[in-house]
Amino acid sequence: MSAGAWSWLDELAEEELAEMVRGLTACVDAVQGAGGDVVDLPEGTSTAEPATGDALPT
Q: For the region Disordered, what residue ranges are annotated (predicted)?
């Protein structure tokens, strides 16, 4: 990704940056907390694909 893709960060106020960091920290904490709940899928299995018969709504 080019440096220009991140230029919008320069426009944020310090309070907005702090809020983003808090939100990111909460997200990382939640993912780490759920780490023990991860199902061990067989190799080659993707969680992005719906299970058989579970078509995504259109």
A: 38-58
What is d(CA 12, CA 19) in angstroms, rounded to the nearest whole number?
11
Residues 8-35: tens digit of each pLDDT: 888 999 999 999 999 999 999 998 888 7
Backbone angles phi, psi at 41, to 5 degrees: -85, 150
Q: What is the DSSP letter of 5?
A: G
CB-based contacts of 12, cutoff 8 Å, min separation 6: 20
Distances in Å between the alpha carbon of 42 and those of 3, 18, 24, 45, 54? Answer: 38, 40, 30, 6, 19
Q: What residues contact 56, with CB distance under 8 A and at least 6 apart?
A: 50
